[in-house]
User: What shape does this take?
Amino acid sequence: MDKRVTFKGLWLPLLLVAPQAVVTAVFFFYPAGQAIWQSLFIPDPFGLSMQFVGLGNFEYLLGNSYYRASFVTTAIFSVSVTLLSMGIALYLAVLADRLIKGSGTYRTLLIWPYAVAPAVAGVLWMFMFNTRIGVVSWYLGQLGYDWNHVLNGGEAMGLVVVASAWGRISYNFLFFLAGLQAIPKSVIEAAAIDGARFWTRFRTIVWPLLSPTTFFLLVVNVVYAFFETFGVIHTITAGGPQQSTTILVYKVYADGFVGQDLGSSAAQSVILLLVVGLLTVIQFKYIERKVHY
Amino acid sequence: MATLSLRNLQKSYGRTAVIHGVSIDVADGEFIVIVGPSGCGKSTLLRMVAGLEAITAGDLFIGADRVNDREPMDRNIAMVFQNYALYPHMSVAENMGYALRIAGKPKAEIAARVAEAARMLQLEPYLARKPRELSGGQRQRVAMGRAIVRDPSVFLFDEPLSNLDAKLRVQMRLEIKGLQRKLGVTALYVTHDQVEAMTLADRMIVMNAGVAEQIGTPLEVYERPATVFAAQFIGSPAMNMLDGTGEGRQVRLANGVAVPVAVEAQGPVKLGLRPEHLTRDETGPLTMQLRMAEPLGANTLVHGTMEGVPGDVVASLPGVHREDDLPSVIRFSIPPEATHVFDAATERRI
Amino acid sequence: MSGMVEKRGLSYWLTHLGLIVGVLFIFFPIWLAFVASTVTQAEIARPPMPLLPGPHLVENYSKALVAGVNVPVATMMLNSLVMALGIAFGKIAISLLSAFAIVYFRFPGRKAFFWLIFLTLMLPVEVRIVPTFEVIANFGMLNSYSGLILPLVASATATFLFRQFFMTVPDELAEAARVDGAGPMRFFWDILVPMSRTNMAALFVILFIYGWNQYLWPLLITTNPEMNTIVMGIKQMFPSGDDLADWPVIMATSILAMLPPVIVVISMQKLFIRGLVDSEK
Assistant: This one.
């Protein structure tokens, strides 16, 4: 797709793309190249020289039980966050769509947590579940349940999942509601005349027609869970206890900045890069297909 | 105001030639219509004159200046686009004055010239409005106003009426013609509509596949079409075109019928007969098996076939004729001077 | 979905009930934070804390804004504002220019440039933090606004968005501008930019929130508390040892941290939704 009209000139367009080209090169391609380069080396213990190890860092990582555990943690975390927040969002969107009037009001009430930063969401949930003063943990204690996400890895995972999913509901709700409202009323009415009850209509008509939205949200939410939840984890659990909430992105940070293990961190970056690449390809494949039909 | 000369203008994209050398000298104040089917290169030719498409070969003169390599703004032309191309965020007055603003004209002069153009086009009440608040006809006028205020040497129109409904199209056609006469400006007008071409043009260029098939006044093209294409493109319904063999001053059709013609013709030819020139004549040489009649009020279109001749034939009979009242076989004659004979190989007029 | 089919009655009220439960679930954490920001430390330290606001709102918020824990929250908010505006304006500016060049010019390297930009879609800053940090450190841009802003300014999404929009601008507008005598930059300023206003505004809303809510990046490069942004600064307000955190001030800060983006989302809801949908497609 190209424009029929173009302006003449060589220096002007180059000048126009220069700012973006420079910023991208310096802060993007150079660091990305560095990440790949560094992933092939390990520094000596004094940080004075680098020793080339080829794919050694990758071999080490893939053989490392902590790293493999982090993969599993990330998978559990991403799937849980995605399903939980999409599930709640779909439920709310279906309800809001049932209303003839007032769905706009609920939309306004439901969308603004989008603006709450993941890190702030983390602080809010940590406050509620604080082992000493948290309201929810206190009431749980009254019910005889001793909540302690600082020591219990399962509870820690549950908390970061809920906090991450909570912040994402607005986004999913918006897209689901838009998707539902795009389904022609006449189709639903036809199904109703055919005698389909609400649940049957949802299962056989609405859900299939909603599938493009659902698929799109699946990919976007997995990307969110992979990368943007760093703030939630850092504020609530800092990856603990015993690495039970150390997702891949957190490990890049922990190994690179806290542990100063640059080679390993760089190798992890490269692996993550491949993961994002894969997700992006899936997303584009899907968009392409959608464009075609 | 100026003359305009196209000398063997050519355009190719890579190896594909789309304009095969068009030449015409346009007199000052003349209205030229370029007409042809879509894809014939007429818009490309216009855009080459405008400076929006590069000229591959040939020369383009506006007045005495060769302007091949000049930017559009330096050619002193104005253009009216098919979709008007009004700047959506500017008011009518701003749209019309934009070129003058760029040229750095004083505000007072811009205002005066915009006001003058607005008065001429009855746009005064709308000067403060945005294009989206205007009707199609009003937008069309603004597009013309934008062209007028620049006081250009040449007016270029790229199918300016094709986005309007039929009634408005007739009205705007008259306005464009009136305006062009009043301003006395040279105009180049592209359309696929032969009625627009016939009514607006001082002369027309009939284009087909990048070639100017014929250049002439509307009546010349109608009465003496230079090629089979020009003959069939101009005139409605289209001219009947029958294969035949030239035998001196007559053409023998495939079914053996001989039709007298006004020229000497030998060998394979195409015989062109305008539907409106076929007259009912019980002794005429042509016989048509009637298939359908379409009464249009002033005249009636009679569709049918000639036995032994491939293809359909149409005749236009004056007055109203109901299908049931017509015989199943109708005989026609045609005066020799109303026939058109074309060489079958070159498709050029004999 | 079925509004026309099923009307009032029990299901109508159940629908509202379900939505209200959802709204409460969304609101509860924020309500609790708000309550905590209006009571005293002592009230929070003795669980369960009250569930209705107390009288200490002004006290807590002014303490946070003026004194904070390490640094006044007002300072952090200013830093966040500079960062968010810098990222939003920066991205919009460089993306507008490069999209204009890509769409309206033919220059050598155009395709290559386009694909390089495309690649950046795939790499969130989180993936390349260590080397990016080194670049910033080498430039001496730690603890500076430019260090906060520049690495986040390179954005493919904004470029693609503008490119897509420019492709929908009719060719005839550019031609008319050429006939009117406008050069490329004149066309850009007089016609393209004014026509892109809505797109720019929608994008601004999204980018402002994106910039304001950054966490990891400011955490890495602002070692000086004076340069902390508010979203990352909250975590720094927690004491490192076993001391009890100053919860009222921290919660007041949390509320302050969400206020600007929430105001932006609510007051520009239409633009926000449009920006969200546009930038994701």
